[in-house]
Amino acid sequence: MHRNMMQRMMGGALPPGIDPALLPEPDSAGARILQYYCVQCHNLPGPGMHTAAGWPRVLGRMNMRMRMMGGMMGGMMGVVAPSRVELDILLDYLQKHAQEPIDAAKYPDLNTQAGQAFSTSCVQCHALPDPRQHTAQEWPAVVGRMRGHEAAMGKFVPDKTTTAEIIDFLRRHGRTRE
């Protein structure tokens, strides 16, 4: 019910969620709290949607909305807000697994065609990620998932040639095996 309402409020552009199995530390208290509270109104967000510095503001805004919706009409909206302890656990989890923004000084090839394609595509939705967040082998799947998100959100989706350039850029700079 709340997701449908949020979908209408967002003009049909509710961000797609992630599979709970893809959450880091999926059995942790933070992941469980994220899954319990956040999906009341929208799809499951991943901690990588925002940077560690950005999560306090986002979580504060979401908590205010949950409290407001939980109090509407004597709680008839059915939305439950987390306790202070749960909020602290959730914020710690989100910040621990947050998007690691890129240090542009470490990547002089950001001004190449591939680097610019990477920048233009990714910043449509979040901070430009550090390519070392994932291994070279992981990047193609991550980029594929992001292309699906871009399409679902009505964002610009790069063509296959540009996508291949982005993947090549990320693989070149991705971590080697864990």
Automatic annotation (TrEMBL):
Cross-referenced SUPFAM superfamilies: Multiheme cytochromes
Top-level division of the source organism's lineage: Bacteria
InterPro entries: Multihaem_cyt_sf
Name the record gives this protein: Cytochrome c domain-containing protein
Organism: Tepidiphilus baoligensis
